[in-house]
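To whoever is on call:

I kicked off a structure prediction for a single chain this morning and the downstream step that reads the tokens threw a length-mismatch warning. I double-checked the sequence; it's 471 residues and nothing unusual in it as far as I can see. Pasting both halves so you can look.
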Amino acid sequence: MSGGNIVARRPFPAAAREELGDAQLRANLRKATHTIRDKRLRVVGEVPDWEALRQSGAAIKDDVLSRLPELLEEFEATATAAGATVHWARDAAEACAVVTQLVRDTGATEVVKVKSMATQEIGLNEALEAAGIDAVETDLAELIVQLADDTPSHILVPAIHYNRSQIREIFTRNGLSALTDDPPALAEAARRHLRAKFLSARVGISGANFAVAESGALVVVESEGNGRMCLTLPETLISVVGIEKILPTFRDLEVFLQLLPRSSTGERMNPYTSLWTGVTPGDGPQTVHIVLVDNGRTETLADDVGRQALRCIRCSACLNVCPVYERVGGHAYGSVYPGPIGAILSPQMSGEGANRTLPYASTLCGACYDACPVQINIPEVLVHLRQTGPHPVAERAAMRALSWAMRDRRRYTAALRAARRGAAPVRWVAGRRGTVRHLPWPLSRWTSTRDAPLPAKQTFREWWATERGQA
């Protein structure tokens, strides 16, 4: 299966070690994530039934996953009846081939794009470029990343790893004149650049935040108005949609249009919420295509524990509270889906390459679970994936030996005594707070990335025997 841009090329530990050396990156990330998380806390605190909304969102999504084939068929029927053409793609390569051919059929050599995780996931821009078609990102952050010849590092704010001075330099190199690095000046430079693109584009490409089965409607929420331009001005509109984005009814949107803006941008509602259903003669695009993409979602759905990752509404709240993401940034994950959600979603959608290391990119602190608007228990899935993933032969042998010793009290006591006697001649480097900073191989595999506590001078059983006179 072709996974597109969800497969990490480097193991997470190696990539994270490199990113940790960038002090400017860490400063940019800390400022941005703390700003967003503080805004989120304020607006979430205004909602008295926030936990009930989270529960409702999770229940709706679980209902969708339990009858996904039925709802997809309903959506295809209603969207087709409304004048749209529905296509199905098993993987990234097939989805890119479908979209590329649709653009070629129009004769266009340039398309305008709404910010879309699905198109990033399948590598659509690269596929279009290979076919001689220029894909213009119109979301400001996506445009910055594209002009920098970079890749996104955040689900919601793709250019979060840049500060405004760096953005001005990027604009200047690409002929977008900005007199200062003040945000209004940068936005004006981007606006002048994009206005001509909007007015001349014959094809628009979007994703969708939600797809309503009962009506065949698609929904896009955004903050800049670029989405509205892309969705209404071109003659042809092509929407690439993950199959898990289905909602059963229009009424279900009421829950998610409260959860999503508060969790993502810290806003009470999105400035622009666009809904469209098929084709309306004389209004908007007159040719509408919808490409429903699987790309590993069916395999994820088959896992009773891991399937909850498909509830994700791409709000990025988990990234903004994650201590690991805040320090290493999105590029360390190697997948288009970074942070805690990427650590459980990418390995399930494609277990290829370095994706196997992503479930270990977490402290299991649980902050992501508390922040998730649809109650995805990310720590639970991380532990599940660690248990079901590959383990070195030496690790399996060590765990079997430890299990054998701990199943019997006398064996366990003897093992503790032997360990203390064996540790006595071992030399280690102690940290300031009574920790072990370095141990000899093979224990150095542990202390190379974390400190270990100093061995206790006395076991609990020995203390108990001394204090209580009991063995």
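Update from on-call: the warning came from a stale cache, not from the record. Cleared it. Sanity check on the structure: The mean pLDDT is 91.
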